[in-house]
Each structure stands twice: as structure tokens, then as C-alpha cells.
Amino acid sequence: MARTCRSRVFAVVTSVLAMLLLMNSYFPMKRAATHLYQLDLKWPKNSEVFSGQPFGVAVDPHLSLVYVAQRGENVPKVLVFTEDGLFLGAWNNSSIEMPHGIFTVNNVTHQSVWITDVGKGLYGHTIKQYDPSGKLIQVLGTAGKAGSALNPLQFDQPAEICVDQNGEIYIVDGDGGLNNRLLKLSADFRVLWMHGENGTGRTQFYIPHSVTVDSVGRVWVADRGNKRIQVFDKVSGEWLGEWKSCFSEDGPYSVRLTTGEKYLIVVQLNISRVNILAVPPIGNIGDCIIVSQIQLADGVRPHLVDVNVRTGAFYVAELGSEQVQKYVPHK
Questions:
Q1: Which regions span the lipid bilayer (predicted)?
Q2: Could you give the CA distance from residue 215 to residue 211 in angstroms, rounded to a whole number?
Q3: Model confidence over 254-293: pLDDT tens digits?
Q4: β-strand pairing of 197-198 with 204-205
Q5: Is the separation of the CB atoms in 139 and 126 below 8 Å?
Q6: How many CB atoms neighbour CB 112 within 10 A?
Q7: What is the rounded CA–CA span in Å between residue 91 and residue 80?
Q8: What is the pTM of this model?
């Protein structure tokens, strides 16, 4: 009970501080402050259900559901909410060891939830697909075995997965393990191309942490350890550019496109900051431009985010405050 009370107090305090800091944020590389989003203080309606550390969050805009992947001893690994914040239930699934990234797929053929598992035990080093109720469908990688093989696929602490509208799969593999690579798989899990070298040069990575794909065929990767975002052509894997200047203080931990793909939402964990960056049109990637920032309270530690492309809201999984918070377009 004491922990629950402390968590509630911390959640309220950080929410209020976040609102105050949002109103007074410092905006480098901007001509004028632009407040694009505001905190939804009513989400969730059942904050006491956060019993562990939320590492990832995924939105299914078609079913109006929000999935939260959390870690901790004797806690359910996935919590399910409505987009309005009502708690619907939890997955007490023994096949999930240490969830990291979580991603939803909802199209005309199926609905599913993908989870990357960075555990080092019997179920880790894998990427798992579940149905919306939490039933395991399939596993990519050999459970409990770290590796770099491509046939069959093996992973070492895979950080995140993204599945595009064609069913093609993008994976960043290497949340501190053996691998530092970006893989593109076909819908039937064949490797189409890969960049897999550790380093600081073009197409090299150091702890690639998050990945997303836009509608004009660009793959955006948060190259966390190198404090940059790298961009690739989704068909060929060709390197298109990088952004560094926005991340001198801390590396990017997440990459998610807003509704209409006008902005890219990127969080920085160690300085507790949410950045909204301008997305360039087709052509030159150029340099990163910060359009707006949300400076969270010290110790909130935002980790991964997801966007509801239908409503425009985005959700932030916060390790320090042990909660997920929702931001909505500013009215």
C-alpha cells in the first residue's frame, strides 16, 4: 500500500511539474515557442494498476486500445487500457521475460501485438507475436540464446520492431548486447537487407534503440549510443542522412511520427525531455529542427513513445515515474 501511495503522489507531482515546465520550456533552434501538445491529466483513470516499470507503449487506433509493457517481479507484463484511460485487464503471460519494445498491427487480415524481449533467461533474446488477448502466435529467434545468425534468426536483446502497411518488418537489434544492427524482413521473415556493424560511421550503430517508417519510404532509427538519428531508404537500405545537432546532451531513445507525418517525436531519457522535430519532405534530410519541447521533471526518464494516428495523441512510457502519460494536441 505504501508503494501505491508513493506512486500516486509521484504521478500527481510529475504531472503538475510537467505542465508547468511545458509552459516555460526553453526551445533551442526555434524562432518562437510553440506549444503543440498538452498533458491529459485525466489519463489514465486507474494509475494504481502500474505495478512495475513501463518500458514501452503501443496504440491500436482501430480498436482504441493502449498496450503498456512493464517489468518487475511478480507483475503482469502487459497492461491494456482504452484510449480514454480505462483499465481493461492484464496479460499474466509466462512467455514474456523482460519486455522492451511493443508494437501493434491492425489491418484487413489480422490484429496482433509484437513484443521484443531482452531477457537473458529461458525466454529472452526473442521477438514475440501475440493476438490482442495475449495468446502467443509465434516467436522470432531462439528463446534463451543470444546470437547474430540470420538463418535461422537469432537476436541479442532486440530493442524494437516496426511493421509497415505491407507487412514488412524492421528490427533494431542490440539494446546493449552483441549486436548493433538494423534488419529488414519480408512478411514471411526473410532477410531483405541489413546494416549490422558497430561503429560511428554511416550505417554503423551503437545501441540502436527505436525504429519507424514513414509513408514516403524512409526508415528512421534512433542510434542512441551515437547520439543521432540515421535515415535509410526502405527499399534499398541506402543511407539518406543523419541528425546529430539536436542530441548533444543525450541520445535519442525513441522515434515516432505524428499524424500527418509533419513531426517526429523523440524522447531523451537521461535529461527527461520530449522533442517534437520537423520532418522534411521527400529529398534532402537536412539538419534536425526542434519545433517544440516538453521538459519533464527530473527523474521522470521517458523511454519509448507511441502515437495514436487517428486522434493525434501520443503516450510516453516513463521509467522513473513508473507510469505512462498521454499528451494531446494543444487546443
A1: 9-27
A2: 14
A3: 999 999 999 999 999 999 999 999 999 888 899 999 999 9
A4: parallel
A5: yes
A6: 19
A7: 8
A8: 0.90
